[in-house]
């Protein structure tokens, strides 16, 4: 009987995520609400419900969904990080930092979480911690770090609810990172030619 339940859950989740991925957020929301109602012990259902609500900018509801996913699996670093991202988007910098630290304590190699934590540190003026996070991310994947960092920085700098001061901090940090990244890449290319 358990296998049949797993197959049904998998089919329902697949249908819901296809709707979400095709941009049909309202339909995906209905599907995921039904899924979590019928299968409340399925962390992935709550995770994707949180993702869908976040995409619809329903931040407090998204956080509640991620809370339920995390309550079902306290080691679910992806849901913890996703909740932190929603808190960051909702300008809860301290809550975001707390979630990113918790997520990284479970899985310290996630480049996107390292970068998001770096952004929080830049906003709060904690330059040494920001630099440490970027160095860690570069160690794991330099190319992905540069791409994600620039993308996240640009996205946050373009938000209307980010203060001019914070935008300037983010832009300055982005220029410094890109300069450092290019220097690192050049040094790596020179050493590989030897």
How many strand elements? 0
**Largest sheet geometry:** none
The parts where pLDDT drops under 50 for at least 5 residues are none
Count of separate structural domains: 2
Mean pLDDT: 86
- Beta-strand level of the residues, as a percent range? under 5%
CATH overall fold name of the largest domain: Serine Threonine Protein Phosphatase 5, Tetratricopeptide repeat
CATH C-level class of the largest domain:
Mainly Alpha
Computed structural class? mainly alpha
Q: What is the assigned CATH homologous superfamily of the largest domain?
A: Tetratricopeptide repeat domain
Q: Could you say which overall geometry the principal axes of the C-alpha atoms support? A: globular
CATH architecture heading of the largest domain: Alpha Horseshoe
- Total DSSP helices: 10
Provide the succession of SSEs: HHHHHHHHHH
Taking the alpha carbons of the first and last residues, their distance comes to 62 Å
* Proportion of residues in helical segments: over 70%
Radius of gyration: 19 Å
What's the short version?
This protein is mainly α and 194 residues long.
Question: How would you sum up this structure, described in words?
Answer:
With 194 residues, this protein is mainly α. It has 2 domains: 1-73, Tetratricopeptide repeat domain (Serine Threonine Protein Phosphatase 5, Tetratricopeptide repeat, Alpha Horseshoe); 76-188, Serine Threonine Protein Phosphatase 5, Tetratricopeptide repeat (Alpha Horseshoe), CATH 1.25.40.10. The chain is built from 10 helices and no strands. The chain has helices at residues 2-21, 25-38, 43-55, 59-72, 77-89, 93-106, 111-123, 127-140, 142-158, 164-193. α4 runs antiparallel to α5 (77-89) and α7 (111-123) crosses α9 (142-158). The longest helix is centred in the last third of the chain and has 30 residues, at 164-193. It is globular and about 60 Å long. The model has no long low-confidence stretch (mean pLDDT 86).
